[in-house]
């Protein structure tokens, strides 16, 4: 899958993400009543991000340094929501596995995606290191959580 294919927004992907993002807001009438839902959404994103980072890196410290450099080079992915969207577009089952705390399956899936990135040439050069794009995004998440 090419970067263009990953970034292409299909109707199904748009509706799916819209439902995820807008579901917590159903029934709210004013901005004050939205605040708990917004903070809940941020918390769920962070929990998902932490699950991915834990599954990918036994020691996120070194990944954090790589992630900071990646974020400087790719400012369009400089927040948790953008990175989660890009990662879950590669494998929609990541969300389900993280939600169910299926850490072993999450690890296996992430390693499969990283291997696939290398096979397809989806790599980035970060400070002289050649890493899979998925690995770079996971490193960026590690630096944000």
Q: What are the salient characteristics of this protein?
A:
single chain, 145 residues, mainly alpha, two-stranded antiparallel sheet, 6% strand, globular
Brief summary:
β1 and β2 form a beta hairpin. The chain has one domain. It contains 8 helices and 2 strands, in the order αααααααββα.
Structure classification: mainly alpha
Q: List how many beta strands DSSP finds.
A: 2
Radius of gyration: 16 Å
Please give the alpha-carbon distance between the first and last residues.
Answer: 28 Å
Low-confidence stretches: 28-39
**Main sheet overview:** 2 strands, antiparallel
**SS field, number of helical segments:** 8
Q: Could you give the order of the helices and strands?
A: HHHHHHHEEH
How is the topology of this model organized?
Blueprint: H1 3-7, H2 11-22, H3 31-56, H4 60-73, H5 80-90, H6 93-99, H7 103-120, E1 123-126, E2 129-132, H8 133-144
Antiparallel strand pairs: 1-2
Helix pairs in contact: 3-7, 3-8, 4-8, 5-8
């Amino acid at each position: 899958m090419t970067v263009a294919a990953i970034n292409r927004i299909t109707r199904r992907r748009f509706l799916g993400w819209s439902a995820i993002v807008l579901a917590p807001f159903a029934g709210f009438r004013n901005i004050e009543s939205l605040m708990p839902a917004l903070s809940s959404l941020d918390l769920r994103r962070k929990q998902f991000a932490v699950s991915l980072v834990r599954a990918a890196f036994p020691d996120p410290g070194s990944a954090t340094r790589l992630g900071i450099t990646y974020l400087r080079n790719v400012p369009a992915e400089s927040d948790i929501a953008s990175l989660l969207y890009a990662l879950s577009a590669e494998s929609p089952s990541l969300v389900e596995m993280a939600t169910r705390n299926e850490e072993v399956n999450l690890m296996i899936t992430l390693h499969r995606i990283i291997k696939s990135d290398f096979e397809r040439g989806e790599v980035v050069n970060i400070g002289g290191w050649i890493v899979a794009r998925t690995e770079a995004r996971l490193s960026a998440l590690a630096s944000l959580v």
